[in-house]
Design goal:
Low-confidence stretches: none
Structural class: mainly alpha
Number of strands: 0
Length: about 70
């Protein structure tokens, strides 16, 4: 039994991951709409494809190699 692998046996809680894009978020709407434009890492991880609010099922199953 490896405790650190337990996290991989459960589905990711996308509700928590999506809180940044909710109407209760403290982030301004303009930032939520353009967050990917301000971060090359988000673009490289293909977060530009998930939209706002995010649909994390659109992320690739295999993460790209980051330069």
């Amino acid at each position: 039994y490896e405790a650190s692998t337990k996290q991989f046996s459960r589905k990711i809680n996308t509700d928590s991951l999506s809180k940044w894009a909710s109407s209760e978020s403290i982030l301004p709407d303009w930032f939520k709409a353009q967050a990917v434009d301000y971060s090359s890492l988000l673009h490289e991880l293909e977060y530009d494809k998930v939209g706002v609010p995010p649909d994390y099922s659109k992320l690739p199953e295999v993460l790209p190699h980051i330069r």
